[in-house]
Amino acid sequence: MIEKIKELKKKHNITIAAHYYQVDEVFECADLIGDSLELAKKSKQVDGKLIFCGVTFMGESTKALNPDLEVYMPRLGSCSMARMATNIGFDEAIKHLKDKNVDFIPVVYVNSTAEIKAKVASHGGLTCTSSNAKKIVEWVLSQDKKVFFLPDKNLGTNIAKMIGKTASIVGEDGFENTDIICYDGLCSVHQLFEVSDVEFYKEKYKDILVVAHPEAKPEVCDLCDFVGSTSQLLNYIENLPPEQKVAVGTEYNFVKRLKHPNTFVLSSTKPECPSMNETTLEELYNLMVAIDEGKPYNEIIVDKEVAEGARISLERMMELS
Ligand code: 13P
Ligand code: SF4
How far is the CA of 78 from the centre of ligand 2 (A)? Predict the structure, then answer.
């Protein structure tokens, strides 16, 4: 299968992109690897066809940034967090903010649908990723505006703590008085990490370091030695001395692929992202064969107006990061 994939890549000028959370067999076939920010940037250099192995919002962002590129996905797996920010939920939150006369700029985490990104752009807002969320939030605050942060309340709250600002959930008592007002969404995978998991490792191994992705709960991140996006975690862990033990609170495929020899998964439950794990090597192969036979499927098509709005919110982020 791998040989045939290589042959079809050449024949049809196909580039394969894979997020770090993809299963090993798929990850190993990729020409472009990275976290969501890196892949969004790298996809701008691609011509021909792109097969994106990740979750739907990533394929959509790539298409919005490169309208002329043919983007396909072996499987349309949808991120649980992106699904939480619905059009209705967004409109209700905006109503709460307006009812309280909050002067805000919306910041939408890249883990969101193209439709929500477009809505954010129409309210003067922009996108962020976990790598640049702090920078984008600080920029909004420097404009003397409050931040409406969506969909991830954990990321929004963790950023607020990092920069000494206050955070709340939209609609809760007194929300209008905080600097960062979060939508009530989260990641079903990163919420698995518990304070008790950190305590377990800290008790078991003296001098162990504990690190996590900022989608983890604030009370867990508070106890961590380092909190960072996927690429920031990779960089931090791979630069540790080999004897240094480190427990990592993020997605399982990424953690088990780390080259550092003393790495532990910060959970007794296997923190696999079900949507990312759905893409298999066989599905990648089947899609490539279908392209070869002139019967491609799962092409990412985004409504023109939505794509334009999503592109604006992504480009505003790119300019700032
Ligand atoms: P990164 O922005 O770190 O790639 O994270 C994407 C994601 O889905 C994390 O759960
Ligand atoms: Fe979405 Fe969480 Fe999976 Fe990341 S790990 S893609 S936020 S469900």
Answer: 9
Whether 124 maps to a domain, the answer reads yes
Looking at the fold, whether 36 and 114 belong to one and the same domain comes out as no
For the full predicted model, state whether its pTM sits above 0.90: yes
User: Ligand 1 in contact with 229 (CB < 6 A)?
Assistant: yes
Q: How many CB atoms lie within 10 A of CB 77?
A: 19
Mean pLDDT, each 10-residue run in order, the chain (321 residues): 94 96 95 86 89 95 91 94 97 97 98 97 96 96 98 98 98 97 98 97 97 98 97 96 98 94 94 94 98 97 96 93 78
Q: Give me the domain span that covers residue 126.
A: 82-182
Ligand 2 binding pocket mutation candidate from 186, 188, 252 (most atoms within 8 A of CB)? 188
Domain boundary among 182, 203, 224: 182
Ligand nearest to the CA of 275: 2
